[in-house]
Amino acid sequence: MAQCVQSVQELIPDCFVPCVAALCSDEAERLTRLNHLSFAELLKPFSRLTSEVHMRDPNNQLHIIKNLKITVSNIITQPPQPGAIRKLLNDVVSGSQPAEGLVANVITAGDYDLNISATTPWFESYRETFLQSMPASDHEFLNHYLACMLVASSSDAEPMEQFSKLSQEQHRIQHNNDYSYPKWFIPNTLKYYVLLHDVSSGDEQRAESIYEDMKQKYGTQGCYLLKINSRTSNQASDEQIPDPWSQYLQKNSIQNQESYEDGPYTVTSHKNSDSNLLSLDGLDNEVKDGLPNNFRAHPLQLDPSSDPSNIIDGPDHVKSASSLHETKKANTGIIHGACLTLTDHDRIRQFIQEFTFRGLLPHIEKTIRQLNDQLISRKGLSRSLFSATKKWFSGNKVPEKSINELKNTSGLLYPPEAPELQIRKMADLCFLVQHYDLAYSCYHTAKKDFLNDQAMLYAAGALEMAAVSAFLQPGAPRPYPAHYMDTAIQTYRDICKNMVLAERCVLLSAEILKSQSKYSEAAALLIRLTSEDSDLRSALLLEQAAHCFINMKSPMVRKYAFHMILAGHRFSKAGQKKHALRCYCQAMQVYKGKGWSLAEDHINFTIGRQSYTLRQLDNAVSAFRHILINESKQSAAQQGTFLREYLYVYKNVSQLSPDGPLPQLPVPYINSSATRVFFGHDRRPADGEKQAATHVSLDQEYDSESSQQWRELEEQVVAVVNKGVIPSNFYPTQYCLNSYSDNSRFPLAVVEEPITVEVAFRNPLKVPLLLTDLSLLWKFHPENFPGKDKEEVKELVTSEPKMIGTEVISEFLINCEESKVARLKLFPHHIGELHILGIVYNLGTIQGSLTVDGIGALPGCHTGKHSLSMSVRGRQDLEIQGPRLNNTKEEKTSIKYGPDRRLDPIITEEMPLLEVFFIHFPTGLLCGEIRKAYVEFVNVSKCPLTGLKVVSKRPEFFTFGGNTAVLTPLSPSASENCSAYKTVVTDSTSVCTALISSASSVDFDIGIGSQPEVIPVPLPDAVLLPGASVQLPMWLRGPDEEGVHEINFLFYYESVKRQPKIRHRILRHTAVICTSRSLNVRATVCRSNSLDEEGKGGNMLVFVDVENTNTSEAGVKEFHIVQVSSSSKHWKLYKSVNLSENKDAKLASREKGKFCFKAIRCKEKEANTQSSEKYTFADIIFGNEQIISSASPCADFFYRSLSSDLKKPQAQLSMHPEKQSAEDAVRLIQKCSEVDLNIIILWKAYVVEDSKQLILEGQHHVILHVIGKEAFSQPQKQEPPEMELLKFFRPENTTVSSRPSVEQLSNLIKMSLHYPESFNHPFHQKSLCLVPVTLLLSNCSQADVDVIVDLRHKTTSPEALEIHGSFTWLGQTQYKLQLKGQEIHSLQLKACFVHTGVYNLGTPRIFAKLSDQVTVFETSQQNSMPALIIINNV
Fold it and tell me: What are the strands of the beta sheet with 1428-1433, ordered from one edge?
């Protein structure tokens, strides 16, 4: 229980005090009324004695009474009605609220820190009023009248006669059977005669003479002259006199109903709304027969004229606020005791002292003695009861019967003179004068008697008071018998059905247990008495039980909270809204943040409702908001109710301050970090064959890999534009900002281009939310705004549509527990700084079957696609936390976040805006297939654009054609056949020999220093004007690997007018091409042994294998090889040496074709006169048309395939002279075996598609670098290397050898033998056959070479010689020669044969080394091929 102002030892005696009746004449009442007080009220503040009092007990022992208090009240002849008592208690509780500035106790229990009000003054007021207002009953005498004050005034005509009348009236009330109320303690009631004298207006001598008469008649002990009203009421304002009455009168004691002002008070049911107010009759203040009979009629009687349908739910539901307010209002304006001076106060105090000392206590002492004597005589005891009690206790105790065994005889009534009642009377008297030992003895005796008689009501009363007496006994000789109280409570409640008496027991026992720190037992006791018959009582007791739980040695926090909730619920039912709200708020401290979401929801919902009822609208909104923002586990219907209540309350709040700032709405949730901002127009949809560039859009998912690729492409093109250097202030263009992008800088947006903000909503509820009139909230600082000062426009918000256009989404529905994004646009019309702050919208729900209690569809509701039940306008801010900083030591050790500026764009001046459309752009190609498409460039802005370039990682995929106009126009024949190539019709005679043309790589933007990935777009006049569009042809070639290819194009362009903030703009496009297999080409080149026409050994043979690898999934019927072309700076194809007559090379599925070509060197003069970038193209045609391979697009794609080779870095020259010479030598040797011959295979494929035949065309490239090494048209898959054992030692630091390989050294010298193919010799004439043979040695390198020719046969084994047949070279067997660079030397040799047969003359072994290399040995040279001779006998 909460702390009390009084200790329990002070509290209980104050609850049970001697009662004195007061009966006043009309004139006496008038005198006291001058002070706005009745006589009883006049005495109230002075009713406690300031000094100790002495009296003697029946054994003549002196007994001291401390702090004795008496209560004086007007006689009321009707018992107070239960309804009136209930109303009074309700008023008392509602009138006592926690003080505003009260500092709460902070209790720390475990991990809870709770703010709890230490005291509960409303409970103490309730308890005091409850105990005072208890009606007197027959089974106990504690609140029966012991004495009666008869009060007359000195201004009465005949005061003595008036006293006689009053005395008769008192006698009539006590002894006449018409009056069962009030109750009197004993028949012989003490009468005390008081003469009131008005000092200011009365005659003092007359008063004194009357007083003398009184003393004569009633004795000095039985009368008193009380002088009051020492000043007139109009003097009252001059001097400020303290007012001790107000604190008593505020409590509206039931016996002093005069304090109620005349006037109606209202009663209402908590189930009806505020409009159903019931008017009741006022309290009757008439005085009849000199008696203020206030409660003659039931005080809660309804006015018969009121509406019979308005029925009160129950006695507790009394709306006390208005009546209490009226009382307070009446009382605040009234000064009590206005005619009394401080001397009068002392006189009243003296009067009470005199009355108690001389009248009341002697009367009580005498009565105790009489009762004691009666009991002794009746019981026949020799000793007084006082000394006999020991015998009763020390003897054998009779076990008390359990309550269940006792018969229900609570209706048994004793006659007033019954000895059992006399014991009880004596006990009560002893108790009232604090003689607790004697009281306990008597109660104990009476209890036994009552139990024997099974008079249960009497027994319960005796048990109750015996327990209290035992507790209050000085020195505590015996422990507090709590079981007495338990039995009493059970009896009162279950047998006697008297909840009022049971409640008194509980209140007293709980206080006693609390004082002994038995909080658990006290709580159990309090909880036991909660019941359905009184919500107010149950609420107060549950609250006290909760305080017991929290005040335990180890506080039971959750029990405290649970019982506070129960108390709050009962307070609410009792109409005590403020107390209900307070209980729920206190309990919330425990439940908050512990994951008990359903409990939290319930508490918040109740707090919201109660706050709303009490017009604490902000609290109500806050509570309902909490319900919505927690992850609720409630059912959909419950959540719908919560939401509608919130909207309803919120609407009322917003109506109170319609011009206030928009408050924050709790739902839907916004994932701020997922907010994306997009700058620019939405992408146009595809229009037939026209397909817009994909660019950037909010529909694309973020991919870090691709964003890195785009960044690299942009850096590449910017570097090219800035002569190879990326400017220091360069930042990659970001059109879409999200949580992955770099948002540390203010983004740049262009005026007149929309800004789209994508907001990610999530509806946490199980009910759909409808947002209407959804738009962005922003702030704008314009730059150079005419006619306004900068300070003025600091906070220019949504009201300026000229500056920023705002898109409004009229309806946006988010279904239950759905995540959904809304895209909101702003249209900037002026340059400046924009700050996007958040969103504004109307929050509502869709009208369903569930409706809020008492709320219909509101007028002025939105009507759209969905029917809206109710909506409120509010906002939510978009606050994005930047990335955590982690660079410096300070940042690493603390938690700091960088800025995120994606919502703060700077609006810059106009820029050109490019749109790109692709026309007839394929989605599927064969590998190597050439297809022609068109690209349309449109400038949709108001600024001209220039410097248009396109950059791609796959430049070999597309071309815009060569630079010169001559190369690109289409030939007539090609346009007839819809070919992508430039063609010329040829005659059939020139089939086998090559047709020569040449072109420079510079014409095709492929130079040595340039970036092949960055391709300028050939715009006419290099500028695209506003609104202009240009269509350019674009040739595409299917990539060589099959599969799906994503090819990124980045278009770069600038404004003609240089902008300081944005230098350039970009447009992205991703093309997805699916390629299927076509041809696989492999080629090798080797030296030819035959001499060319000029006798120089510069010929080579090129072998080409073409395989059709298409598995006809693309509907390809067959491939035709229509032309093979070569392109090289030094070599050209000369003719085809195919032996087959069939000139049309067709390849069906999985077929392979072989081709052999002769290649010759270009003429020296051609090679020298032309620049090093000139390539010679030679075409060998297998059809009727020559495709000009040096024109677009054939040459474009050829050069693009070369570009990867051209990009390779050149060998760095070394500085050391000795190393220099060695490296030069290596280079010279390497060049011998190098050949830069490139083969282009041009083909047509015949495809059947939808029963139509299409002709596709394409080309493959094979780049031949080294003699004898096979080259392929498509990259070969690398075989994974075999697993090796791990090596656990460090490899020696091997320097890269600068020596050439043996293979390279063996290609220095080319050898060819010239001899007759067959030789006829008459062996029968001449046994030796001599054949002349010319050995041609050709130096392939540019350096001098030392050559050794060894003609001796290399004998491996004797058998080999015999088998192969032997011949001999005649003459010199070894020659040593030196050949200059490119020199051809011939040796005349003779071969000698002895038999006919076929012989291989290719036996000479040749060794060569560079002349200036001392250390290197001669290396054996490759012998090209067998040289067979046939020797015939003639």
Answer: 1318-1321, 1428-1433, 1397-1400
- Please tell me the distance from the alpha carbon of residue 1002 to that of residue 1203, in angstroms, as a whole number: 12
Task: Name the phi and psi angles at 298, rounded to 5.
Answer: -60, 125
H-helix or E-strand containing 486? helix 482-490
Q: In this model, does residue 1169 exceed pLDDT 60?
A: no
DSSP label of 867 = B
Phi, psi of 716 (to 5 degrees): -60, -50
Contacts 24+ apart (CB under 8 A), 652-660: 652/612, 652/617, 653/617, 653/618, 653/620, 653/621, 654/872, 654/873, 656/617
- Residue partners of 266: CB distance under 8 A and separation at least 6: 277, 278, 279, 280, 319, 322, 323
Contact, 624 vs 646, CB < 8 A? Answer: yes
Please give the Cα distance from 807 to 755 (Å, whole number). Answer: 10
> Is there a contact between 130 and 507 (Cβ–Cβ < 8 Å)?
yes
Q: What would the pLDDT profile of 74-131 be if each residue is shown by its tens digit? A: 988 888 888 888 899 999 888 888 776 666 677 777 777 888 877 888 888 899 889 8
Q: What pLDDT does residue 253 have?
A: 45
What tokens appear for 722 in the block?
A: 């800035």
What separation in angstroms does the CA of 493 have from each of 460, 817, 1170, 1298?
10, 52, 126, 116
| H, E, C per residue of 149-179 | EEEEECCCCCHHHHHHHHHHHHHHHHHCCCC
Dihedral angle of Cα 505, 506, 508, 511, to the nearest 10 degrees: 170
| CB neighbour list of residue 472: distance below 8 Å, 6 or more residues apart | 9, 12, 13, 434, 436
Length of the chain counted residue by residue:
1434
Q: Report pLDDT for 1280.
A: 66
Mean pLDDT of the chain: 79
Strand partners, 1014: 951
How does residue 1090 score in pLDDT terms, banded at 50, 70 and 90? low
The predicted model gives 537-549 an average pLDDT of: 93
Q: With beta carbons less than 8 A apart as the criterion, state whether 540 and 126 touch.
A: yes
- Residue 1279 has, within 13 A of its CA and on its CB side, a CA count of 3
* Whole-number Cα distances in Å, 850 to 338, 624, 853, 1109: 61, 18, 9, 70
- Displacement of CA 277 from its chain's centroid (Å): 46
Helix (H, G, I), strand (E, B), or coil: what is residue 1353?
A: coil
Q: How confident is the model at residue 866 (pLDDT cuts 50, 70, 90)?
A: low
| Amino acid identity at 971 | S
